[in-house]
Amino acid sequence: MTTVRLPLFPLNSVLFPGLVLPLNVFEERYRAMMRELLKTPEDEPRRFAVVAIRDGHEVAPSAPGMPDPTSLPERGPAAGFGTDPAKAFHKVGCIADAATIRERTDGSFEVLATGTNRVRLVSVEASGPFLTAELETLPEEPGDEAAPLAEGVLRSFRQYQKRLAGARERSLTTGADLPDEPGVVSYLVAAAMMLDTPTKQRLLQAPDTASRLRDELKLLRSETAIIRNLPSLPSSDLTRGPTSLN
């Protein structure tokens, strides 16, 4: 396996290959990361790794907290992630390529990145101004019967969209054609479904595309049945991904 060391950006969400990630960067440790990335020539990828947080806080406390209101907030690159940051994160993440990094007048950054390929967390280093990680690249294996599984997932996903739109008492805002390449389908559906972080993480770290599609097919059928029986179920837009506060 090929390994690489990159800046590490932990989030309370899962990034999938091919999906867009908007970020509002205001904490100093991540500002320092963006300043470092801006040193990379524009014709080269400005890459960092995104991992989902298993146990910790995306934004470190910035004021005295409970139960002791006089206690000082944590500082430094690992603030909010305990004494061993590696244990606070899920082990499989995704490399992000920052297409846009814009610094605001107050020193914060507006970032637009895209997930590229999956990586496994090997180790985390917290000695610098921001976290870095040694990462092992993961192969993208198709698995058995990925193509027919993708067709089934797309059919079920369209039914899921229709049910969800009906539950919200409005029509879908997107008429765009969905892709049919199995790997792309598997990640798009994983990102678009209304699932909790552990379930999305499970889909990200599936051993191959076919396994991910099989899991998604079960989830789609289950979620569609739930929405059918609970027509007032609230949900957020399928086509709008969450913007991290940091």
Automatic annotation (TrEMBL):
Gene3D superfamilies: 1.20.58.1480, LON domain-like (2.30.130.40). It holds the Pfam family LON_substr_bdg. PROSITE patterns: LON_N. SUPFAM superfamilies: PUA domain-like. Residues 6-224 form the Lon N-terminal domain. PANTHER family: ATP-DEPENDENT PROTEASE LA (LON) DOMAIN PROTEIN. This is LON peptidase substrate-binding domain-containing protein. It comes from Streptomyces coeruleorubidus.
